[in-house]
User: What shape does this take?
Amino acid sequence: MRNLLILLAALLTGCFSLAAMAVGKARHVVVMVWDGMRPDFVTQQNTPNLWQLAREGVTFKHHHPAYLSSTEVNGTALSTGAYPAHDGIVGNKEYRPDINPLAFIHTEELGIVRKGDELTHGHYLALPTLVEIVRQAGRKTAVAGAKPVALLLDRADRTNANSGANVFAGQTLPADLLERLTNRYGAFPKANDAKPTRNDWTTLALLDSLWADGVPDLSFLWMNEPDLAQHETGPGSERSLTAIHNADDNLARALRALEAKGVRDTTDILVVSDHGFSTILCLVD
Assistant: This one.
């Protein structure tokens, strides 16, 4: 996991580029996370755009999550390069009596994150994330997530988006960005809305708004599918496959946007998953 962080940091500093190594011309990195995506569903039929991207690039076959099917755990590990014992997030839900002595907390909720930072003097996460490192180095970032886990990638409060914005499950940093987005694209869709999906809305917010003045040095785009569909209907179901197609469609939109802006050849694109969906909560016919 730490090696991925080092690789991404190297890509941004121009030291090493996986996709453009031969000519050394990569200038942007886009990381797209398909939540709960399994590698055995990456086929020409299910995911034509991802399948083609894999054929043209590099596929990592021997990978694994930091902890089974826990999005917040793996999302934090992915963004810090550290295992849960070191980055501070060990569960999607945790019992932290200093935050709430009467019930468990959801580790990705904005109010919980803010109280956690208040109690720890800014160390709710024990380590900085890649997005934070890039912004602190004076580079620009953009984070857009259809799930609230995207908050953990770049949680600092801010009054403007000069160095980077974060759109996470219909909320935004800076806060006033949300009104602009909803005025343009409508309200953030409900969980099971089909047109547009939460992934459609989030991808549009990134490509049309956060990239309006150019593609930042680092972008994260976090899809909420096929995770939700698989939790509710199981991997391989018709709904889950539809969700996978939708994620692939949004990958195509991102690739077209990079082409339109003339930066496809100078952008390294990493498509990853936080876990392979080895568990589900329940499934009853």
